[in-house]
Amino acid sequence: MTEAVEIVEVGPRDGFQGIGPFIPTETKLSFLERLVGAGLRRIEIGSFVSASALPQMRDTPEILAACARWPTLRPQVLVPSERRGREAAAAGARDLAYVLSVSDSHNRNNVRRSPSDSADEYARLLDGLPPGTFVRLNLATAFDCPFEGRIGEAQVLALLDRLVPMKPDAEICLCDTTGRADPAQVGALFAAAQARVPQARTWAFHAHDTYGLGLANVHAAYARGVRVFDASFAGLGGCPFAPGATGNVATEDVVWLFERMGVATGIDLSALIPVARDGAAIPGGLPGGRVREALSTNPDACAAARLT
Amino acid sequence: MTEAVEIVEVGPRDGFQGIGPFIPTETKLSFLERLVGAGLRRIEIGSFVSASALPQMRDTPEILAACARWPTLRPQVLVPSERRGREAAAAGARDLAYVLSVSDSHNRNNVRRSPSDSADEYARLLDGLPPGTFVRLNLATAFDCPFEGRIGEAQVLALLDRLVPMKPDAEICLCDTTGRADPAQVGALFAAAQARVPQARTWAFHAHDTYGLGLANVHAAYARGVRVFDASFAGLGGCPFAPGATGNVATEDVVWLFERMGVATGIDLSALIPVARDGAAIPGGLPGGRVREALSTNPDACAAARLT
């Protein structure tokens, strides 16, 4: 193992949020405990949003408070506005993910604002945050929009021109919301973005596997120097506002990819697989990924993930 | 579209061979007709092998003869020995694929010979072929073996040293039989092989998607200049001698990858998807792939494959 990547587990937010039947808080905490046990250190545990819009996320404050029991865990929460960011910070969140979409129609669908207004909102959010707050900035529909199709690089770069100087040490995540990015596009956009705003300290990639390109895109981003990757255990997830866009890339698939390549993830695949199997069985969930099933039908292969 | 790749449809051989219930010859021909209609120009239509070992392939001579009705089609047949190669040529085959495994245990399991003996057999096969026969040389377990695990580059290169000079204009296909190759390994092996036997005219890649890395590996091979890719409609397939190795990379997924990248495949995805859907429903089949389902649940997305 010569290098390392950081996997941000987003299943408890991006995976759970689209599930209709409420997952009991204790069940969520049990999944979190097992994910931490498998070696995950950064987990997006929920979001501060309207309980009527996303009732599944209504227990996020309670879950955030409970995370104090796991000293290795950095719990991250998603916030779509200044007000929700302040609420999250007041509730003790130290890792915030703010999201806006590059495409106008997706952003309006999501938060009823233009991307430009969401950029202004980001500035206001940053102004009010306690010192030391870690900020992740998610650019949704950075590659493709369910309503507008493929997004041009210039549109993303123009938004980065505005956003990055507001907080150059924020972690910038380019998100393939629909799963319709391809590896050439992923490599090209990260290269262009890195050249355009070289002051950005950390880049991250959020892949969906809807069309089977999740790992190809992750690898393309890795080849451009990206070392932080979102993934969802059992491949749970999808954007409730992006029709057909089921399927975050599965954490177990991303771990398999990197461990096979000799790149350390810090995650114990044999501990993760049973959690993913139980995650795939959550009533109302939309699981994805290949490794869970491949290793479950062929358990001897589990050992093959590590070559060393 | 600035470049082009050639997709070799292997479903009618690699996909069908592991299916227990005999698929009626007329059904096979109907699938072939629709695959040709979708734009596939090279199809591995069967194999000349022992009818007791692989009864599903027993109608290959009949299918080969019927292929004359499609003037755009180059039907390819798999042969494991000199004798079977002669039989195939006598039956009118002009495109032969000879297969041997890099790993000793897999080759013995498959054809009851050492790889070295299979290399000698390849030389004898070549000696007896009619002039103008196109030869594809498949190196199975070039990356990983179900019995021996990861295969070292040196082992593959030593075999290429022997095989390539016998017929430098053969198409050399490196096969990820287990689906456990990773994109770094795929890129590195193709680079090493191209440097080692520069006289080899054409390289091809045969990917499996068992662990979700099929398209990532295809893209890695493409990045190294490979332009010929095996794929199976509906992702049907797997090696009957490689436990757990279900899942050739799906043709529709490979088409999606390249069309999204702006690389021409010559295949009409909207014509292929219904064939793949019917292929996935063949009794006893083991389908795979993501694009078929993604486009079936979200038909509008079909148009999105082409960006131009």
Q: What fraction, in percent, of the residue positions of chain A are helical?
A: 25-40%
Q: Give start-end ranges of low-pLDDT stretches of chain A.
A: 299-308
Radius of gyration of chain A: 18 Å
Name the assembly state.
Answer: homodimer
CATH superfamily of chain A: Aldolase class I
The SSE string of chain A, one letter per element, is EEHHEHEHEHHEEEHEHEHEHEHH
GO molecular function (chains A, B): lyase activity
Organism (chains A, B): Methylobacterium isbiliense
Family (chains A, B): Belongs to the HMG-CoA lyase family.
Protein name (chains A, B): (R)-citramalyl-CoA lyase
Overview of this structure, please?
- The structure is a homodimer of 308-residue chains.
- The first copy, chain A, is an alpha/beta fold and 308 residues long.
- Chain A has one domain: TIM Barrel (Alpha-Beta Barrel).
- Helices cover 39% and strands 17% of the residues of chain A.
- Chain A is built from 12 helices and 12 strands.
- Chain A has helices spanning 11-15, 25-37, 60-66, 82-90, 104-111, 115-127, 153-163, 183-196, 214-223, 251-260, 269-280, 291-297; strands at 3-4, 6-9, 42-47, 74-79, 95-101, 134-140, 144-145, 149-150, 171-175, 202-206, 228-231, 263-264.
- An 8-stranded parallel β-barrel of chain A has the order 2-3-4-5-6-9-10-11, surrounded by 6 helices.
- In chain A, strand 4 (74-79), helix 4 and strand 5 form a beta-alpha-beta unit.
- Residues 299-308 of chain A have low confidence and may be disordered.
- Chain A binds chain B through residues 144, 149-150, 179-185, 209-216, 218-220, 243-244, 247, 250, 253, 256-257, 260-262, 289-291, 294, 297-298, 301, 304, 307, and chain B through 144, 149-150, 179-185, 209-216, 218-220, 243-244, 247, 250, 253, 256-257, 260-262, 289-291, 294, 297-298, 301, 304, 307.
- Chains A, B: GO terms for molecular function: lyase activity.
- Chains A, B: InterPro entries: Aldolase_TIM (IPR013785), HMGL (IPR043594), PYR_CT (IPR000891).
